[in-house]
Amino acid sequence: MRRDLDGVFTTPIQKAATPQRTNRPPSNGAPRSGVIAATLGGIIIALGIGAFFVFNKVGPTNPTAPPIEQKPATATATSQAKQKPAAAPATQMPPAAPKKNAVTSAPPKKTATPVAQPDTRPLEQFLVGTKWRWRGSGASQHEVTFLGDGTLEMEDWTRQGLVTGWRQISPNEVELTIMQGRNKNATTTITFTEDRSSFSGMDYDKKHMISMSPRIEPRDKK
Question: What is the pTM assigned to this prediction?
């Protein structure tokens, strides 16, 4: 015991002895918190590795859009080159050399062919002086002329002593009459076409036809 300042005797309190540290190896049991941390770390690493492989193998999850197939750039360029062939460069023609002393002539003018106007004179006036190719019975053809004195001139008839007269009886018809010679007073009628280019009728014997007898133009006379 010892005496304090007030003179009271007290018993001193002894301190517990502090154990000293020794370099002993760790025991088999690890703290619980360390085990939990290690387990969580392993799980996280495993999940990360699994997600990496799944993502690279499957790709982004999109249930509606199908995967897009990517073609190599070289194949696309080759197909475009086949579809669009290169255009050949245009060749420029050299300018034509000017002709020296070139004379340009105008095309010849076409002359209109005159159209024959129909003769509106009475048939009696029109026939005076005209010549025709008489095609009566038989194979013979004779030239006949309408004279202004009202008679017909035909070489064969004159040689036989026949005299034949003519007169208009309608706008397109003329009556022929044998005035002298055989079959005196025998008559027949010939009819002219509308354009007055030919005539036809019945022969004097009333049995044979006078075939279409054309008009002889001056250029057609032989």
Answer: 0.47
